[in-house]
Design a protein that fits this description.
The protein is mainly α. Helix content is 81%, strand content 0%. The protein is elongated, with a radius of gyration of 30 Å.
Length: 116
């Protein structure tokens, strides 16, 4: 970790343009150093994990994707939406079918489509 800090500090020091004082506030330098260090550590972890071939990589990508995209929350939202939207959609479908096809024909179609 100390090597990362020294490397990040060197990057911050060397990246100042000519004529600009390197006496930037300590907070800015330390924030840049921390972000550079974290980015380097994240890239190292990514290389180690993504470098594995085969099913380990597929499993890792599936788990990471599920966690990053909030899979359980999205599944709950989808099931809630399906549950709440099914009733009104059925009412609208029956109403529109009654207007277009007639009440008796619509009733027969709906009765045959729904499970007994």
């Amino acid at each position: 970790m100390i090597g990362h800090r020294q490397h990040a500090h060197q990057q911050v020091s060397e990246s100042a343009p000519h004529g600009v004082s390197l006496a930037a506030p300590a907070m800015v330098r330390s924030a840049e150093a921390r972000s550079s260090m974290l980015l380097g550590a994240a890239r190292g972890v990514e290389r180690r994990l993504l470098g594995r071939p085969g099913w380990q990589r597929v499993l890792r990508n599936a788990v990471v994707g599920f966690v990053l995209q909030a899979g359980t929350r999205m599944a709950a939202a989808l099931s809630y939406y399906a549950l709440v939207a099914a009733g009104p959609m059925l009412v609208l479908t029956i109403g529109l079918g009654g207007l277009l096809l007639g009440v008796d024909t619509t009733r027969q179609i709906v009765a045959s489509a729904l499970p007994h």
